Request: fold
Amino acid sequence: MNPSTLKPSYSHPSVLLPSPSPLRTQRRRFRVSLPRCSSDTNTPSPSSPPQRPPKELTGIEILVDKLSSPARLATSAVIVAGAVAAGYGLGSRFGGSRNAALGGAVALGAAGGAAAYALNAAAPQVAAINLHNYVAGFDDPSILTKEDIEVIANKYGVSKQDEAFKAEICDIYSEFVSSVIPPGGEELKGDEVDRIVKFKNSLGLEDPDAAGVHMEIGRKLFRQRLEVGDREGDVEQRRAFQKLIYVSNIVFGDASSFLLPWKRVFKVTESQVEVAIRDNAQRLYASKLKSVGRDFDLGKLVTLRETQRLCRLSDELAENLFRGHVRKLVEENISVALGILKSRTRAVPGVSQVVEELEKVLAFNDLLISFKNHSDTDRLARGVGPVSLVGGEYDADRKMEDLKLLYRAYVSDALSSGRMEDNKFAALNQLKNIFGLGKREAEAILLDVTTKVYRKRLGQTVSSGELELADSKAAFLQNLCDELRFDPQKASELHEEIYRQKLQQCVADGELNDANVAALLKLRVMLCVPQQTVEAAHADICGNLFEKIVKDAIASGVDGYDDEVKKSVRKAAHGLRLTKETAMSIASKAVRKVFIIYIKRARSAKSNVESAKELKKLIAFNTLVVTELVKDIKGESPDVKTEEPVKEEIRETEEDDWESLQTLRKTNPNKELLKKMGKPGQTEITLKDDLPERDRTDLYKTYLTYCLTGDVTTIPFGVQITKKKDDSEYVFLNQLGGILGLTGKEIMDVHRGLAEQAFRQQAEVLLADGQLTKARVEQLGKIQKEIGLSQEYAQKIIKNITTTKMAAAIETAVTQGRLNVKQIRELKESNVDLDSMVSVSLRETLFKKAVGDIFSSGTGEFDEEEVYEKIPLDLNINKEKARGVVRELAQDRLSNSLIQAVALLRQRNQKGVVSSLNNLLACDKAVPSQTLSWEVSEELSDLYTIYLKSDPSPEKLNRLQYLLGINDSTAAALRDSGDRLLETADEEKFVF
Reply:
């Protein structure tokens, strides 16, 4: 239906219409329009819809309009009666008979009836036109009531269910709905549903009829959307269609699911309908939220809750919208505060303005929290609770720094009075939660600001003497921490920092005088700095200065460590008030770094000789520089002698090895050599904790080898000359052991290992065949004395060599099958340790071979004690495992022995048959068997006869009879006719 302007008809007075109320004395044109595409520039705006002329009455409609319902009925009766009478008169006049008169009456009566019917049939259309013109006279059609419509219907005697009248009511409802629902580009205002429901009730329109009107409006919108050519227009028509769906579903409530078949008619999915309802509900609820400011009260929250329900918005979406609205309100305050804080032209009062804005945020947050804790929260808007910036403008990493600036400003203001009040501290926690700051971030800002304030107040109390006059410094400082809510542990760290700064100022000239010491002691007492903290600070600060002096002294090298350097070291060690332990620890760290450099050079050398030369430089550095450095640090006189604990330790451990090992004995020089070599080096600073034991012993062994071989020099033509060895190298070796931090046992193990290596090399040459003769023993003893190896270790080496050689020979014999159990017993009786020479697997193989020999010996004997006890004991194998081997082997050999006996029988080898049957009996004795089966029973009888002839023992013969399944009668017959059977068997030709 196209929109039109409705106006009353002026050609027909409205005296026949129901009288309007006093409010309706001034009639206006009612203009309505359908939603349309905003891109259509020729279409007027909703505020100025196109005007439509009122509907005019034509023909008989004019007469019907002038007659009331009773008058129309009377007139109809008159017309019918007059027509009958006129027909009767005309028939009588022209026909001249009664029948003609009756015919004329019937004819004109029918015509009159048709006229009367036409008059009454036009009544619904006339009523509809009058209703149209009546409604067109109102500016607001919502003032139309059900009574007004009933007056018009009663006036013309029509029913509201008449098609024409009902169609007009639907048209009026359609125009009203189309005018109420805003076009696609406009948002819903929220009163559309109430207005439509009220107007529908005013019209008295039933829900099915009204739903049909809504569906028809949807069809028009859908057609317009298809006709729109541009994308923008399509979007607006789609939004208008979505708004229609949303409003219609609320108007009809639960009945909308069957009254409004959107999915069937328009081929839309259920999710699309849900999206239309959800999006419009969100926009409508959001528009209501825009009118709500920071002045939340209980009534507004209740109203918002009711609005949410009317909008059919879910709790989750309503909560998100409410939180987003609250977040935007808070973001406005934050933006203002940031603008003030970042303003370059801001004055000092600007900070207070920033705090005021943040106080507004906190007050707003407290208000929302109070509503969240309300007893009847179900009546309040969803989402009421603490403020959060998550998901908003300031929920980004680049904005987090701005929030930290605001938080810092608030902390500074909270501590501006020199103390932290309880309410301010609680506000800081709330502000941290609002800003979304992490615990560490907030604590870092609070700690930074509080530290500055604490340092400032601490300086004031020290300057005024208040802290010095306090009876308890610890209680005074604790009270100061409590006022600022400052962590006492952090305060202690700050005290340590202050003490360290003061110490650095005091040692700026390189030493601590008495005045400096007194000032430091006073500061330490006032700040309650622990002794261990003081010592650590002195070790760090003074230690760094001392370390620099030590490094300079070390860097001077062997030739540069003169009296001036000694003086500087002694001055620093005493002037910096370091304990000897601390000074030695610092010096040890620096010296060991130089030691490591020498060690790296020695390791990277191309030969052992070059490596030994680098180690000799290390020894010289230790003797000439490090030893003097240690004396200067300790303040010892040059006459103090250095003990040699390594030698004493060696002598106390094993005196015999000390005297026997020639290389070890040379490391303890005599008095003449000591006088020639000078004073020994220090042994307090060592590499014991810097290098693993293996590396230290390898370095010692390298230099020991150099002491044994001497220095090799290559001259032209490739000739090598070995310089004469000097016992002084062993003194250096002793000093190297001290530098490397080797214990007496470790040094002795190196010397002994080298001696064993030399002895082993020569012994392996002499004992290449594994035979130890008397001449060889004497020769080995001579070598032992030359090397200085003790008798115990020499015997171990000799035994190891001979045992290894013998073990190889025994293992080869076992593998090749040249060694039996009897020979194994003989070797054990000769005290040969077969367990270490022959592996378990080979010993098990040897046992299996011995058992196999028993089962194939042809004697028919099986000694259980020998097999199960003695042989496993001799071979040192598991007895249970041995029993399993015997059982498995016996079961396998049992059937094979029978097959072999039959084969030998067929070959006429009687001796082999007897031997195979004995093997069968031996297997049966190891593992008793049931009667054996064979296809040719005559062959079993022949086996029994041949075995009977070998004169066996009765036990064996009876057991064989059982195993072959021969009964007693058959056995007796075979014994009686044994010779004849044998002769017959010899003459037989066996067919295979």
User: Anything to note?
Assistant: The longest helix spans residues 98-136. The radius of gyration is 62 Å.
